[in-house]
Specification:
It is built from nine helices and twelve strands. The chain is α/β, with parallel strands linked by helices and about 250 residues long. Helix 7 crosses helix 8 and helix 7 packs across helix 9.
Amino acid sequence: MNEERREPARAATSTSPRILVVEDESDLALLLAYNLEAEGYVAECVERGDEAELRLVESPPDLLILDWMLPGVSGLEICRRLRAREGTRTLPVIMLTARGEEGERVRGLSVGADDYVVKPFSVPELMARVRALLRRSRPERIADKLSAGDLDLDRETRRVRRGLRDVHLGPTEFRLLEYLLEKPGRVFSRSQLLDGVWGLSVEIDERTVDVHVGRLRKALSRGRERDPIRTVRGTGYSFDETFGKA
């Protein structure tokens, strides 16, 4: 296997695509996690199939790298179950295996894997496949720019503009806007926003979300400008999917 270790090109943020690596070879899992994080992704590794099933139910990632042979539950069975559930039916899956025979590849793809990589493999090639699959399945998670109406967010420069003016946001407000802009119209509860923007490990009060949403609204809308953030009473917040549309 061609190993590649390099300094991270892009720092992962709480809104970076999340990738779950299910691999029982710890050295390989560590290598994959290192290179995924170097690409700017958030990587998590588990070694057992049954543990992976729990993680997939609790918090589905943006992409799954799945070994064929696993303790607990096989990768093949995990993939079959994913495709049978509504919430994970379209989850991108790259299957890793030492099985190189054509019949085994067909079997892996037939249960719903989107791509198939035979060990030993080139890590740069796998990273390229990850990028390609994310680009097809979740383009909003890897796009450099997000836009709605006269509002533009640039992930590379960390700049936000509304029309002809710059919108000055703090780091948290930027991440909050980025998270909401990825899925216009979807209503997020305060706890979901805490997990997605601040991170699962952060212990802060849900009222903190209201404070930062207020700051974001104040920065985005001046005078008679329309507020793009929608409050759903008793539930949470969303980016108004009608913003900028006639």
